[in-house]
Amino acid sequence: MPEFAVIIPAAGSSTRFGSNKLRATLGGLDVLHRALEAFLRRTDVVSLVMPARIRGFAQTIDRPTYGDLIECDARFIWADGGASRAQSVLSALRCVSESIEWVAVHDGARPLVSQELIDRTFAAAQKYGAAVPALPVTLTIKQAAGPLPAPVERTLPREQLWAMQTPQIMRRADLLLAFENCPIPLAQVTDDVQLLELAGKPVWLVEGEERNLKITTPTDLHLAEMFLTPC
Fold first, then answer.
1. What's the rounded Cα separation, in Å, for the pair 119 and 123?
2. For 58-95, how does the pLDDT look when each residue is reduced to its tens digit (9 = 90+)?
3. DSSP symbols for 165-191
4. Is the dihedral angle over the CA atoms 84, 190, 41, 36 positive or is it negative?
5. Ranges of each domain in the chain
6. How many Cβ atoms from other residues are within 10 Å of residue 170's Cβ?
7. Taking a C-beta distance cutoff of 8 angstroms, is the pair 79, 43 a contact?
């Protein structure tokens, strides 16, 4: 059975949330705990690397739930977090063994990722080289040079627009080479498969899930709680 490594960045500042969103409680467990558990429960995950500011997570490491989840799991590896998400991912990628062909990058702030979504994305990655779950954009999107107020430049056709989710799964070697040859500053890279796009590699989209939301604001946390609450 094909295997893969997972990178879960955890070095962000959570500015819009107001506190560390990864430590926020969701259904009795931390947001980050749920994201980690979704992958560590899988037998096809051979390594999980988390780039983080280690000192900032000192209290988290000592908590019993994390001790049970990561300190006793030989697959778990800490990596140094970078100044941007892309730099954190690169730091973690360098910790992944060359013997591992596939790597998935997943937001630690997406705690409700399902096993079916991981399976679907990994299957598509093996078929096409790289895959990402996505949802159709339902809002009308205007392009304008902000900050607002600003004049509208054009309306983007939303039937061609898709909102990215994670996990984003690709070959480790392809992602590393894309990092090494990235033509723009890493601070401008907004998601991982963008690097592959810049390198001319194909990236395929698969159907995402509404419950696989990213916790960015307290409102997102309330919505996630609703997904966990039985009807």
1. 6
2. 444 444 445 567 777 999 999 988 899 999 999 999 99
3. -S-EEEEHHHHHHHHHT-SS-GGG--S
4. positive
5. 4-132+166-228
6. 27
7. no
* CB atoms closer than 10 angstroms to residue 16: 12
Distance CA 129, CA 80 (A): 28
Q: Is 63 helix (H, G, I), strand (E, B) or coil?
A: coil
Of 159, 156, 199, the closest CA to residue 177 belongs to 199
Amino acid in position 223: L
Number of other residues whose CB lies within 10 A of the CB of residue 181:
11
Please tell me whether the overall predicted TM-score, pTM, comes out greater than 0.85 for this model. Answer: yes
What is the structure's pLDDT at 98?
Answer: 97
The arrangement of secondary structure in 4-132+166-228, i.e. its CATH architecture, is Alpha-Beta Complex (3.90)
Angle at CA of residue 20, ends 18 and 23, nearest 5°: 135
Q: How far apart are CA 19 and CA 214, in angstroms?
A: 15
DSSP for 1-14? ---EEEE--B----
Kindly state the tokens that stand for 134: 């996505």
Sign of CA dihedral 227, 163, 35, 12: negative
